[in-house]
Amino acid sequence: MDTMTLWHITGWEFAALAFAALLVGFSKTAVSGANTVSLAIFAAVLPARASTGVLLPILIAGDVLAVLTYRRHAHWPTLWRLFPAVAAGVVLGTLFLVWADDGIVRTSIGAILLMMAGVTVWRRRTAEQEAEPDSVTSRAGRVKARSYGVLGGFTTMVANAGGPVMSMYLLSAGFRKLGFLGTSAFFFLIVNVSKVPFSAGLGLIDGSSLLLDAALVLFVVPGAFLGKWAVNRINQRLFEQLVIAATVVGGLQLLLR
Question: By CB count within 10 A, which of 10, 71, 123, 252 is most buried?
Fold first, then answer.
């Protein structure tokens, strides 16, 4: 099937998806969590359930570029503590997708986007209360890692929206910019790749979706290079405000659609 007619996509809709793919690349190398805007665009242009399957390979491409850029800065003890809880969240999200129809998924994505916007606002207000990354070795740190891990696994499976959850966790654990980007890069590459069999089993990834991905993934690369260039130049506060506003608008659009 031709990529431009897949799901009756118009030229303007394809342009919106291409912009969303570019933003994925930018978010992976500059502002983690900004791809919630991409999620809203994909869910608005495509059927809600199908959008999660189309977006997943785009996210993986961005993750690969982020790992290549920040691979020396990952904090593996934190990653190993998160993965078991994340796996449980992914399983819960898969069971939810088995039960939910397109309308429920669309409403759920909208609600998750609004929740993630609230999480991001809260994270920005509490970001100054930092600890060292190794503080996750404490009992409270382990409980926090498990809680965020389950929530992150569920939101990333249902809506590819685990970015703000993990961003808040890593910032609250005291990670500086490069450590934050390196740890989140490996985290999302491993988690997103592990989601592929689940998404394929649910019918969210197939030949048609991969055909559209092949056209869109080309836009991830310039976005990643733009993010790498901008990471030390961007006004982080203003950009996060814009991302939050766009996420709220996208979430409301999906809820009211």
Answer: 123
